[in-house]
Write a structure and sequence with these properties.
Helix content: 25-40%
Order of helices and strands: HHEHEHEHEEHEEHEEHEH
CATH class: Alpha Beta
Low-confidence stretches: 1-28
Number of strands: 10
Number of domains: 1
CATH architecture: Alpha-Beta Barrel
CATH superfamily: Glycosidases
Mean pLDDT: 92
């Protein structure tokens, strides 16, 4: 009997050793959907004459209850994370206050939130040294929050207007903040010459495209050619920045067509084969790319996305 038990044990060990190893973390992530999120609204915002629409329930971005409601609405259609435009911790600015609230509310609801380091405002991240301070705080503090967005175990950091610095400057920043690339840096736009300092790219606005599938495939290819491995094709419900005067090269208005524009945009992004899709946006009302329930469109965008996301995330 002991001999038989010993033989059986050896057989089990041999079978286990012959079994294939588990797939790497990247392969185990599954499909995910992110939505670009803005946290700079106050009660006074909704009286701005340039707005053509507003939330079904107007809010102050510092209202934790409103953030919790937004997370619940996003989860109801299969969105996994918000990517929030963030200026950094300087002066405890509005975006920093809201980002902290967003992380806490996300943690309470099994949701995720990542930062988009916003470099557009001249008052924030205007110099290399200041940007290093912002990123050091993000990597060493906020990225350790239990709700901070990770992919393959690594914190994900998006950027906006990174063209403020040269490639040499970005390489110096990356070397000081994350020389071993333990975080994932994603740049915005088409200037792929900066890619050696980043891990991938995204396009905030693709509403100009008449062929979403071709655009998604083109930029997936360019991302890879430039050395990037992380790519998130963009999905939009529509676009209208016509009330914002003074913009150079504005994008022509894109009608929502009862959700058909959103459906076409989604299908185009899916066709690229990417494992993560980025929706622009949850609540950008000035450019009318919002999918959040609103006065003008109700829940149209969420109702359109719900079956599309469910089919894709289940492997369709």
């Amino acid at each position: 009997m002991q001999k038989r038990s010993l033989l059986l044990s050896l057989l089990i060990l041999m079978l286990l050793s012959a079994a294939p190893l588990a797939s790497p973390a990247v392969a185990q992530e599954g499909r995910q959907v992110y939505a670009f999120y803005f946290g700079w609204y106050t009660g006074e915002t909704w009286g701005d004459g340039r707005l053509q629409d507003q939330p079904a329930a107007p809010y102050d971005s510092r209202d934790a209850g409103a953030i919790g409601r937004q997370i619940g609405e996003a989860q109801s259609v299969g969105i996994d994370a918000f990517l929030m435009s963030w200026f950094g911790p300087k002066n405890d600015n509005l975006t920093h206050q809201v980002f902290n609230l967003l992380l806490d509310q996300a943690a309470a609801r099994g949701f995720r939130a990542g930062a988009v380091v916003d470099m557009q405002d001249p008052g924030y991240n205007a110099t290399v040294d200041e940007t290093i301070q912002t990123l050091s705080y993000l990597v060493n503090d906020r990225a350790n929050h239990p709700a901070y967005l990770r992919y393959a175990g690594k914190p994900v950091i998006y950027f906006w207007n990174q063209g403020r610095f040269s490639l040499a400057q970005w390489q110096s920043i990356r070397q000081q903040i994350d020389p071993n690339r333990q975080t994932i840096w994603v740049m915005e736009g088409t200037a792929t010459n900066l890619m050696p300092a980043f891990d991938g790219l995204y396009l905030f606005n693709t509403a100009w495209s008449n062929n979403p599938a071709a655009t998604a495939a083109q930029w997936a290819r360019r991302n890879t050619q430039a050395g990037g491995w992380f790519y998130t094709p963009t999905v939009l419900p529509g676009w209208d920045e016509s009330a914002l005067s003074g913009r150079t090269n504005p994008t022509s208005r894109r009608d929502r067509a009862n959700g058909q524009f959103l459906t076409n945009s989604w299908n185009g992004a899916v066709s690229s084969g990417a494992s993560i899709i980025l929706i622009v946006s949850w609540n950008e009302y000035f450019e009318n790319s919002h999918i959040e329930p609103s006065s003008a469109y109700g829940t149209q965008s969420l109702d359109t996305l719900r079956p599309l996301i469910a089919a894709w995330e289940s492997g369709g």
